């Protein structure tokens, strides 16, 4: 019985470490545990779903896709621009050249002038 408990604790520790790495962005945005108002603001279910996926790392950026293929972090590069940088959430929203025109329409300029 003690061996089973030992293994269970070991697997629980690995799970916590894995979840900690995946939820790095989420921990930086989510400062407290409370009701999320985006649920009310984003009335279209598809948009709420995409936003929630992005916040929790359940998206298709190289930072996550590379994890499934066991690529080292520094090899999870953006494939849509020539910046040769890791495609993470920050790069996707504020830095990638492909989305510059969309960024100008929806994000105040002060947020993406020198983010990277």
Overview of the structural elements:
The model is unreliable at 1-19 (pLDDT under 50). The chain has 116 residues and is mainly alpha-helical. It is built from 7 helices and no strands. The relative contact order is 0.08. The longest helix is centred in the N-terminal third of the chain and has 21 residues, at 2-22. It is globular.
The separation of the N and C termini measures 51 Å
Number of strands: 0
What's the order of the H and E elements?
Answer: HHHHHHH
Unreliable stretches covering 5 or more consecutive residues: 1-19
* Global outline: globular
Helix content: 55-70%
Radius of gyration, in Å, reads 18 Å
Percent of residues in beta strands: under 5%
Q: What structural class do you assign from the helix and strand content?
A: mainly alpha
Question: On the 0-100 scale, what is the average pLDDT?
Answer: 77
Work out the helix count.
7
Largest pleated sheet:
none
